[in-house]
Specification:
- The complex is a heterodimer of chains A (540) and B (379).
- Chain A has 540 residues and is mostly helical.
- Among the domains of chain A are: 113 residues, no CATH class; 121 residues.
- Chain A is 81% helix and 1% strand.
- Chain A is built from twelve helices and two strands.
- In chain A, helix 1 packs across helix 3 and helix 4 crosses helix 11.
- Chain A starts with a helix and ends with a helix.
- Chain B folds into two domains: 285 residues, ATPase, nucleotide binding domain (Nucleotidyltransferase, domain 5, 2-Layer Sandwich); 48 residues, no CATH class.
- Chain B has a seven-stranded mixed sheet with strand order 2-1-17-16-13-14-15, sandwiched between helices. A five-stranded mixed sheet of chain B has the order 5-4-3-11-12.
- In chain B, helix 6 crosses helix 11 and helix 7 crosses helix 9.
- The longest helix of chain B is centred in the last third of the chain and has 27 residues.
- In chain B, 47% of the residues are buried.
- Classes of the chains: A mainly alpha (540), B alpha+beta (379).
């Protein structure tokens, strides 16, 4: 038997048998087992196969026999493999079944737990529903009670409404009665007022008539008074004019005197300033002289000292050169001292004499020369200052150019390559204006501009002329201006304002008080006259 | 505009009294209506010496130049105050533009079309025209405005006949309801005109109307210039302006508000206003809206005029009733004079007003006034 066949047989046996332990067998109550060896089994098979072959086929060769054995073995292997596969499949299926069983158990467990949960939830739900139902029932109860109450409330409101309407009706009736009463009162009052008004009107008419009469009388009286006053004014004007002329001349004299006094005062102050300066200079000179004197004294002392030393030296040395030299120095010093004395004496005398003459002639110090010199130097200084200021503040000459001019210039300066047009080759839409020519307009304008003065202007001129004529009278015949009218260019006042005026007013009758309106009118005329005079003076 | 009244006379000077309108003959009205729209003609040299002096109306919508020819007729040139930048791909064929009589300006490699042509081309290219001026003044936001203005003014004035020929140009008065800068505007216009060889002088726009329309009244009265951007008012006494001011509301303000309340486009509102609307007889809600805003604007102007007059110092005594003359494109609408007269009677004006009338040539009244002032200066 070949080993290969044994191997197959072994695997077939293993595939179709189970391995069990001796303890298991013993536990099953088995005490004895029959052990089959593989070789024996092969022999058995071989014998069986040979037997079958011999019986069925007959005598076969060894080769054929081996071939049949091999084929049988192959068939046996195939069957075994199929058997093995099916066993494996069965094993897998069993495993799957086990798994499914396990899963089924799990699912069952879950199902049970879910059932439990469902039961729990159902119980909870039931409890909640019960509670809600109870609440709803309570709410329904409450609402039904409220509805009952509302019905009661509506009834009450209706009752209130009726009551209010009744009250309103009563109020209306009362108001109507009150209104009627008030109307009656008002009518009565109105009638009273009308009666009063009629009385008042009658009274006013009476008073008006009275006032009119009084007014007329007053006007007549005033007119008479005005005429009287105008007559008086004429007289007063004369006297006033002469008084004014005299006052003016006095005033001019007074102003001249004042001017002269001012000038004199100015000169006096200038002289005093000069004196002060001279005093200062004198003081300085005196100080200088004192210093010279001190110096002189010092030099004299030195001279004496030197003399003494010289004498001592002469006595001691008796030398001719030194003595001669010293004598020479002494002579020089003597000469110096002499000169100093003379100088100081001269200075003293000259200075003092000049100062004295200046001080004694202070009245003759002419302020004019100083003033002229001062003015000259002041003018020169001012010119210098002005020129310096001008130089300092001189600005460069600015050329102001309009921004638009710059813009336009840049536009017109562009060449044809930058800006060009065909407009000069084309026609322009042209028509004749419907309004005709303008020569009439030009003539009218020229006439307007060179025509006569305006009527209002002529009127003003005529008024001014008549006013001047009235006030000036025959001014041409009185060149001295003694004509009171021509000299009277001030306002007309009731009382004199200065002593001079009052003094001269005594000569003429004092103008009596006149009405304010007349005074204003005359003052206005005077103002106009003054304005005309000034205008004429300006043109001159 | 047939049947339109141009003059209202008051039976007794305002306030109080009924106004009676002076209806003109239809033929005369047609002539007047047709005059502003006459066919453009080429300016040909005429016999006789041409008087010196020119007028220039620098308006928001239109610029006009006026001069006298040898026969004493006033020749007016007009150009729309607008321009449009042409896209680069279309700017190559400049000769074609010249042949089509389209004025253009080439400035810094860009091409601009000026005047009326700019409106036509704007529609074609789907763009909006640009305006050098807004609300009566040069727009400082429009950078290219000055070169355009220079060319348009040069085109209108031409070369001076003599060096330093006077040119009077109109400027608006400062607005009472809006802050505007007259210095920049006046400076630019003056500079351009001076550079062209003229002697420029500015004058108030409404004052120019006094010069143009009130010669028979010793140049005494009230001139009102009714423009697209603003209304200008001037009260003058023998040529001397005593009160002058402007309000920043005009025809454009009416268009804007009518469009807003009626929910229509502004273009439609403008077309409505410029159609045959009669302010005294509106036919539908849109026309009623136009009437409403016209009345509001006129009342606003008159109230402010009254206040200005009362506040002014040194105002001369107007011993006789004065006339009110209105001019400008916004006054062309039918019934304008009647509505003005009605609103005037509602205001307790401190001056006695004899009547209200429209200028004979409302579109060129201002430039005529400038020309008169220039001619007077030259004489």
């Amino acid at each position: 038997m070949r080993r290969k066949a044994l191997d197959s047989l072994r695997s077939a046996i293993e595939a179709n048998t189970e391995r069990r332990s001796l303890e298991d067998l013993r536990a099953q109550g088995k005490k004895h087992v029959r052990v089959v060896s593989g070789e024996k089994v092969m022999q058995i098979i071989k014998a069986i196969v040979a037997d079958i072959i011999d019986r069925e086929v007959g005598a076969v060769s060894k080769r054929d026999r081996d071939r049949i054995v091999d084929e049988t073995k192959d068939q046996f292997d195939r069957v075994l493999k199929m058997q093995t596969d099916s066993d494996a499949l069965i094993g897998e299926q069993k495993q799957l079944v086990a798994e499914w069983r396990e899963r089924a158990q799990k699912v069952n467990a879950e199902r049970e737990s879910l059932r439990a949960q469902i039961e729990e939830l159902r119980s909870e739900q039931a409890a909640r529903e019960g509670k809600m139902l109870a609440e709803y029932q309570a709410r329904v109860q409450e609402l039904s009670e409220k509805a009952r109450n509302t019905t009661d409330e509506s009834g009450r409101i209706a009752a209130d409404k009726e009551r209010l309407e009744r009250t309103l009706e009563e109020d209306r009736r009362n108001a109507a009665e009150r209104e009627a009463r008030q109307k009656a009162d008002f009518d009565a009052r109105l009638a009273e007022l009308h009666a009063e008004q009629r009385d008042l009107v009658a009274r006013l008419e009476g008073e008006r008539g009275e006032l009119a009469g009084r007014q007329e009388q007053a006007i007549k009286g005033a007119q008479a008074r005005i005429e009287e006053l105008q007559a008086q004014l004429g007289d007063a004007t004369e006297g006033r004019a002469s008084a004014t002329a005299r006052a003016e001349s006095l005033e001019s004299d007074a102003s001249e005197s004042r001017t002269r006094a001012d000038e004199a005062a100015g000169k006096l102050s200038k002289a005093e300033r000069i004196i002060h300066k001279l005093d200062t200079r004198l003081q300085n000179t005196r100080t200088t002289i004192e210093n010279y004197d001190k110096e002189l004294q010092r030099v004299i002392v030195e001279r004496d000292q030197l003399k003494a030393e010289l004498a001592a030296a002469r006595e001691k040395a008796g030398e001719s050169d030194a003595v001669a030299a010293m004598r020479g120095e002494m002579d020089e010093m003597r000469g110096f001292l002499t000169r100093m004395e003379e100088k100081s004496g001269t200075v003293n005398e000259e200075t003092l004499n000049s100062l004295v003459s200046q001080i004694s002639d202070r009245d003759s110090v002419s302020g004019d020369a100083l003033e002229a010199k001062f003015s000259e130097s002041l003018d020169a200084s001012l010119d210098k200052i002005t020129k310096a200021m001008e130089l300092a503040t001189a600005k460069p000459i600015d050329v102001q150019v309009e921004a638009t001019d710059v813009l336009i210039d840049s536009l017109f300066d562009l060449g044809d390559d930058v800006m060009s047009s065909n407009m000069d080759e084309l026609e322009v839409e042209t028509r004749t204006s419907a309004g005709g020519g303008i020569s009439g307009h030009l003539e009218a304008l020229k006439a307007l501009r060179t025509g006569t003065p305006a009527p209002q202007e002529e009127e003003d001129n005529a008024e001014a002329e008549s006013l001047i004529d009235d006030l000036l009278g025959d001014a041409d015949g009185n060149p001295d201006g003694n004509n009171s009218d021509s000299n009277f260019d001030g306002e007309l006042n009731d009382t004199p304002t200065t002593a001079a005026e009052g003094k001269h007013h005594g000569a003429a009758a004092e103008p009596a008080a006149m009405s304010g309106a007349a005074k204003d009118k005359i003052n206005a005329s005077m103002e106009r006259l003054k304005a005309v005079r000034e205008a004429s003076e300006n043109t001159d | 505009m047939s049947g339109d009244t141009t003059t209202i006379r008051f039976n007794s000077p305002t306030s109080g009294g009924n106004a009676e309108s002076q209806e003109q003959a239809p033929q005369q009205q047609k002539q007047q209506a047709a005059a502003p729209a006459s066919t453009p003609t080429k300016a040909t040299p005429t016999a006789g010496a041409q008087a010196l002096g020119r007028g220039l109306d620098v308006g928001t919508a239109n610029l006009l130049g006026a001069t006298q020819d040898g026969n004493g007729e006033i020749v007016v040139k007009r150009e729309r105050n607008a321009f449009l930048e042409i896209p680069a791909e279309f700017s190559g064929n400049r000769d074609m533009l010249t042949q089509l009589n389209v004025p253009y300006v080439s400035f810094r490699d860009k091409l601009y079309v000026l005047g009326d042509a700019s409106f036509n081309l704007a529609n074609m290219f789907g763009q909006e025209v640009r305006r050098p001026m807004a609300d009566g003044f040069l727009s400082p936001n429009e950078q290219d405005a000055i070169p355009m203005m220079k060319f348009i003014i040069e085109r209108l004035l031409g070369a001076p006949r003599v060096e330093g020929e006077p040119v009077y140009f109109c400027i608006p008065a400062p607005s009472i309801d809006k802050e505007n800068d007259t210095v920049y505007h006046e400076g630019i216009c003056t500079g351009i005109i001076k550079k062209l060889g003229y002697t420029p002088k500015a004058m108030n726009e409404a004052h120019a109307i006094v010069y143009s329309e009130l010669a028979d009244h010793e140049f005494t009265g009230i001139g009102v210039s009714c423009g697209g951007g603003m209304f200008n008012v001037c009260v003058a006494y023998k040529t001397i302006p005593t009160v002058k001011f402007s309000v920043a509301r005009g025809g454009d303000w009416i268009d804007r508000h009518v469009a807003k309340v009626m929910g229509i486009s502004r273009t439609r509102a403008t077309a409505l206003k410029e159609s045959d609307v009669d302010l005294m007889a509106p036919r539908n809600r849109e026309e009623e809206a136009v009437v409403l805003y016209y009345r509001n604007l006129i009342s606003y102007v008159l109230q402010n005029l009254k206040q200005r007059f009362q506040l002014a110092r040194d105002v001369p005594q107007f011993t006789e009733p004065v006339e009110v003359v209105v001019a400008g494109g916004t006054s062309l609408v039918g019934g304008f004079v009647e509505v003005f007269a009605e609103e005037l009677q509602k205001v307790d004006f401190p001056l006695q007003i004899a009547g209200v009338r429209r200028a004979e040539d409302p579109l060129s009244s201002v430039v005529r006034g400038c020309l008169i002032a220039a001619a007077l200066a030259e004489n």
